[in-house]
Structures are given as C-alpha cells and as structure tokens.
Write a sequence for this structure.
C-alpha cells in the first residue's frame, strides 16, 4: 500500500501528529481496510521526506491506540475495529492529546497553577536506577511488599523530613500511598472524624472528596494571613485540614501565633486532629523556611502529609503521611487490608534516588530554576503593580494577583483570553460563594520567555481597559 | 576502623545478612560511633573472604535503613541515630526481612495461597520497555495524565479483554487504579449502594473494607457450585460482590444457571449492581475457559474487575474496572477528583508490554509453568485422596483440601506445622463462624520439587495419625 499524506510545513502541527491523524482517519473511514499492510516506516519517511523517527512516533501512537497492529519482522497492519459502536466516539476524539490540553491549545501562554517543570527531570539517572532495581537478583521487588510502603523508602523519607523540615519522624509512623487524595481517604477511615474544618478557599478536590465520604465540611474563612483560627473554635469540627506553609489558593503563610492556636485547639480535646498538607514547602525563594506544624515539637494531634508530585514529577505517584502514635497503632487493624498502592519498583527507585543524593541535587537545581521563573514573573509584573496587588509570592509555584479597583475575576480572565493567555480564577475554590477580583498565575511549566510574553499580553489588555 | 565479623558458613543465614545484622547491632549498641568510617567494601570483602557484592548488599541495606551514610569518593560512615527513642524498636526488629517472612522462616515449605511465581518475570523486557518510556522525547509521561488512566493502556486492556474474555468493552468505560481494593472504594462512592451481598466465605479484606466504608455486608452462603444465588433474592442487598470464574477460597466455578440468576436479580431493579471480580481467570488448566458474566452479553448491571497482580507481578500495582454506562457517566463528577493512582510511567510500560505481544507470550509461558506446578501438586496428592477431597483444582493458583473424616482445620494446620509445612485455613474467610475441615494449598511460588517435598511431609503426619 502506498500513502500520500499532504503535510503542512507551517510549523503549526508537528509532522508526526499530521501523519497520525491522517492514517487514523483513513482507518476509521474504512479507506484503509482491516488487515491492510501499512508502508514501512522507512518507505514512508522517504516518501514524505521526514525522519524515520517521525513516522515511528506516529505509528507507535496508532499502535498504542489500537489502530495498527505491529507484527515483528513483517510490519504494521491496519486493525479491525473491534468495537464498531464506538467508532463515532473515537472519530470525535479529533485531538492527538488529551482534552485538557486541547482546551489550552488556543492559548499562547497558559499560567496553569498546578503545572510542574518536567524539562529538568533527570531521565538518565532515573533510567539508571530503574535498571539497577529491575534486576534478576532483586526478584523480591516484584512481590507484594509492605502495605505501609517499603521500610527503606519510609526511612529515606524520615531522613529527608529531618534534614529538610526539622521533623523527627520514625519510619514506623510513615504510610506511603499513591496520591494525597488516597491518603486522606485512608485517614478518614482511621480517625472516624465526621466534621472536617477546611480553609475557605481550599483545594476543591479535597473538600468534594471528604464530603462524598460522608463528611460534613465546615468552611473556616481566611484572611491575608491564612485561616482565621479563632473561628475554628466556634465550629463543631473534630478534624481540620490546613496548609500552613503556603495555603492554596491564597498563598498565605500562617503566622506562628495562629499555628500555636491550631495546636491548642487540637490538643484541647482527645480525638481532634490537624491534617497538615505541606505540599509545596520545598520551594521558597525569599526569607527563612517556614517550619512545619509538626516541627514545633508537639506531634500527637498532627498528621503530616507530603508528596513527591511537585518535587520529582507528577507521574511519580508517591505521597506519604506521618501518623501520630494514637492513629498509628490502629493503622494495621483499620487500614491494613488496603494493599500498598505504589508499585514496589517505583518505591525502591525513589528510595535509591533519595539515598544516593540525587533527590537533594535535583531539589537544589529545581529551586534555582523555579526561583528564576518566580523572579521573572515578579519582575515582568512591575508595570502592573499600580493596578494589581501580588500575594502568595516568595514560595510555591504560583502567585495571586488581585485587582485593586475590584475588577471582577471573570472580566480579568475574559480579557486575558482575548490576549491568548490562560489564567485561573480563585472563586471556584471558595466553599462560600463570593465575588473575587483575584486570579492565579502558575509559572512552573513556562519558560522565562513565555512568562514575560504572557505578562506583556496581560498588560496590553488589562492596562488599556 | 577494622571489623572482624564471625560468619557462620552453615548455609543458614546468607553472609550479607550476617554482615548487615552485625554492623547494625554494633551501631545500635554504640560500639561503632556516629561518624566513624566503615571499612571499604573491598577491604571488608578481603578480610572476610566473601565477594565484594555480598558486602555491598549489606552496606546498601544499612544505608537504606539509615545506619550508614555513603559519601561519594570517601566511603561509608556510621549515622548518628536521629530518633533515639526508637532505637529499641529498631533493635527489636531483629530480622532482615519483613515480619511475615520471618514467620515463615521456620517452615520448609509454605503453600501460600496468594503467592505468585516471580522467577519467570521477563526482567530484561521490562527494563528495555522502561528505558524506552523513560526517554527525554517522552517528557509528557512525567505529567499528571488522565484520572481514569492513560487512553492507550485502556485501549490495550480492551483488546485483551476482547481476545481473552470475549468481552466488548470500550476504553471510555475503563478505569485503571492501584489495586482492586482501591477500585472497590471508588465504586462504592459511585454506586451509592449501601447493602452489599458477598459470597460466604470470601476475601476478608474486601468484606472488612466495605464494612468500614459504612456498608452493610450481607453474607450469602455457598455450596460446591458457589454462591447459592436463590438466597440472594431473600436479602435486601443492592449490590453483590462475586467471583464467578473461580471463587476464593472455595475454588467453585459458578454454573451457567446461577450466573443467569445473578443477572436476573441485578436487572430486576434499577440501581442493583454485580461486581464481578475476575482475579485469576487467566490460569485454567483443564476444560474450556469460563466466560465472564460480562461476556454473556448483558453489560449494564455489571462492573468487571481485573488485575495484573497475578498475570504480571504483584508489585505492578495495576488493576482495572469496566463500568457499565449508568455508572460510567457519573464517574467524572463523583470520582474525578481522585488523581490516577498508577504512575503514568508504569501505565505506559504495561501498555507497551501488552501491545508488543510480550504480555501474551508471558501469559502463555506462565500458564505452562503453573500447569506444571498444579499437575505436580495433584499428582503428589494421590496418596492422600482416600482421606482428603480436592476441590478448586483445574484453575487458579491454589486448591482446597477437605478432610473426609471431618478432621478440624486447626488440627490439620498444627500437624503440618510439626512437619515444617505451612498451610492455610479456610475458616477465617467465613463471615458466619463455622467449623472447617478444609485447608488451602497455594502452589504458585513453589518449585515442583518443593511441592512434592511439602506433600510428602504432609502425608507423613496426616496419614499416620
């Protein structure tokens, strides 16, 4: 079979994607029939004057999605569509990539607040460690392992918490799990708490998840310093989910007196717990590090939650929690029947990554990278400072911009969209509906140039209004 | 520093473990002081006349557990114990390996019913695929990905279900997650069902987990054919968790008429669901394959649960479920805030493993391996057949032995222990307490020789009693 694919070389859509889309359509339409042999990657690359790698990428994707069947030594064949009734659905899925990405395609710059820079991921190191772990001598790594997570990884996490957060935790207190949401789910089974206080605004996912797990969610309002802890005492809450080091989405850092108030609240009554989500404490660009609540020395009413999603990569699904003794002793009985959710292979790779010093090096490097982006953003925002207040800066991977004239969030977002810039509102994170004139600008997966270009565009539409 | 370690060469405890234990004790006791430099692996291997690799293994473990600190170019140093109050705990942890393993150490043969043969895992292939996925060109793999799991993997799973289980599922219906327990947790949030019928006996973990998630568990008794489905109708259940292909722990295969009865029950009333756990359908040694409930053509009241824990390896934490349309459409709203629990890297490696034909080859190979072990066990059990009935054979990775004279399970287990053989009772899986004269013999991670030796020992104690 010969295929002639009209490739557009305008630099818009990559070649491999054009090849992928073309062949997919031909198969879906039936013009390439089931069992038909596709041209070899070599032949097609010559015919189209593109690299063989480009064709291979397209074929791989088509294979992964079931359109092509590779046969060793023979080549690629068009697949018979086994689920004909879904052809329309699949054809409707025009985009090569995911929906969420498709949505951002119309934007020149996307200040996504949950982004992470993956450009500096140490691929070679990770590959090397994975190769070492995946060895015949290490068959043990294939078996089920400890429901709490491997002891070695838990010990590595403790050493890290000690050196980085001044915390004294023992491996026996640590539970590893695939994502903070999952750990929170375990926690709610462990504490038996039913009324959970959360900062308002907070992560929508957390409040929605807790509510669905039959919990009553009690919003506690925040100001520039974070949760108004004195309001906590007015509630019936038996648990509080807080982000003292860098609250999302306000960016507030909880001052010491409020931290102490939180602790006092929790200690007042047995069965009260603080869930401290320390999700982005690693990235702090100015001023001294904020100690974790747990570092204040009192450990019993606190559950500490951490994650490697931001410090290593979102795909590495490793989060962890440090349980106080009162919860820890019940863990095996109440949660021991959940098998560990993180692959033991990944756990061992991560432990080695930490133990051999790669993690610290990577963190140092990323602190530099993120500080550069953070500073570039602050710098680029100077011309806007008459009209906008910046908050939540100095730490984390996003900052918050508030219109001094009270311009509505929705108007800011709409104007930005006109300029090809995607920014994110804050109002959706409030549990108590309210007007907002704030937006979030995440900078982690943008280059410094993109940051400057994005802010330049924002200035053009915002300052001329 | 020089260390002289008295190594016992009787073949009992491996050298690396002896070295590990010795140094650990020296550090815990304070005889090796904080900051002291350990001998190099080379020096110690020469001094002890063991391979350098042996010393390295011990040092690696000591490093992973925080006893040693490696300093590049300089060597290994004794760590200061950061959590002094846990020293006793750690010293108490005498064993090198996990508690559960320590417990089995006294046994010559352990017929663990949840074991999996990892000796035949295709390490080289997995390493190669991991290397391909972990490439700089594939940075995308580091980002968060789809909460349901990568589309490519879901498509691979559908092709597999189609060819192997005769099921027509679309990738859009599939949800990937780290373990069946986790998926069941999502499911209970999705269905809103509160009264769950389970086979009695069943997986303890499942019934305990569902109960803790505030579900009422309704045991339905079983006979040799599996769940007595006519009893289901007498209950108030709105959901049933079943294992029709090979029930655990009875090993029963649900006959067609009961399957149809299950389906009729579920279809009678909207909101009723069957959770079909098809955990070990791949391994069938005699007779034709048992179709899944879902393959009967009716798909709406059925949620299909599958896992790669047994077919690939327990450490590969990938399970999946196929949702019927009525549940699928609510998934994003009700469960979309749980991020995907399986690392995207692992998902892509597994998808490639499936797409490139390795999975099928591995399955074929393992079917052969397990059939060999299964047949060896059946064969070895011949002399015991006068006294014991065998059931649950022909499929899966364990079988069930029932004393014809009604000898109590506990007596069988105790006698086996005397003979150095670990076998497993059935009674603990019953929700309604009852006497049992049955035990489980898992054969997956034993060699054929070990199987014969184990049964020989059982015969010695059981037949002479």
């Amino acid at each position: 079979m010969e295929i002639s694919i009209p490739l557009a070389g305008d630099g818009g859509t990559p070649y491999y994607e054009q090849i992928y889309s073309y062949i997919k359509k031909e198969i879906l339409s039936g013009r390439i029939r089931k069992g038909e042999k596709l041209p070899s990657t070599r032949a097609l690359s010559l015919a189209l004057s593109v690299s063989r790698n480009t064709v291979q990428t397209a074929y791989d994707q088509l294979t992964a999605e079931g359109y092509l069947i590779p046969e060793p030594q023979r080549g690629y064949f068009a697949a018979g569509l086994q689920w004909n009734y879904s052809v329309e659905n699949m054809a409707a899925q025009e985009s090569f990539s995911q929906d969420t990405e498709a949505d951002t395609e119309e934007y020149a710059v996307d200040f996504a607040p949950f982004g992470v820079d993956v450009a500096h991921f140490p691929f070679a190191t990770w590959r090397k460690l994975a190769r070492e772990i995946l060895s015949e001598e290490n068959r043990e790594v294939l078996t089920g392992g400890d429901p709490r997570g491997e002891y070695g990884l838990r010990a590595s996490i403790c050493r890290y918490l000690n050196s980085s957060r001044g915390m004294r935790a023992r491996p026996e207190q640590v539970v590893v799990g695939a994502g903070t949401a999952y750990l929170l789910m375990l926690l709610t089974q462990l504490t038996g708490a039913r009324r959970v206080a959360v900062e308002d605004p907070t992560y929508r996912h957390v409040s929605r998840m807790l509510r669905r797990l039959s919990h009553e969610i009690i919003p506690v309002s925040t100001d520039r310093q974070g949760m108004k802890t004195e309001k906590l005492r007015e509630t019936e809450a038996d648990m509080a989910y807080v982000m003292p080091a860098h609250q999302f989405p306000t960016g507030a850092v909880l001052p010491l007196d409020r931290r102490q108030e939180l602790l006092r609240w929790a200690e007042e009554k047995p069965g009260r717990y603080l869930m401290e989500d320390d999700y982005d404490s690693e990235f702090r660009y100015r001023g001294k590090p904020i100690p974790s609540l747990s570092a204040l020395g009192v450990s019993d009413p606190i559950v500490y939650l951490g994650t490697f999603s931001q410090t290593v990569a979102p795909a590495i699904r490793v989060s962890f929690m440090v349980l106080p003794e009162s919860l820890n002793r019940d863990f095996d009985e109440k949660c021991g029947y959940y098998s560990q959710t993180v692959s033991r292979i990944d756990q061992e790779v991560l432990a080695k990554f930490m133990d051999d010093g790669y993690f610290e090096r990577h963190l140092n490097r990323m602190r530099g990278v993120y500080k550069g982006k953070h500073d570039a953003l602050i710098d680029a925002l100077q011309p806007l400072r008459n009209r906008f207040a910046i908050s939540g800066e100095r730490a984390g991977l996003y900052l918050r911009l508030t219109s001094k004239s009270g311009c509505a969030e929705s108007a800011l977002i709409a104007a930005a969209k006109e300029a090809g810039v995607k920014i994110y509102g804050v109002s959706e994170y409030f549990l108590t509906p309210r007007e907002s004139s704030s937006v979030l600008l995440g900078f982690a997966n943008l280059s410094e140039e993109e940051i400057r270009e994005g802010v330049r565009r924002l200035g053009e539409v915002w300052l001329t209004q």
User: Anything to note?
Assistant: Chain B touches chain A through 79 residues (CB under 8 Å). The longest helix of chain B spans residues 358-380.
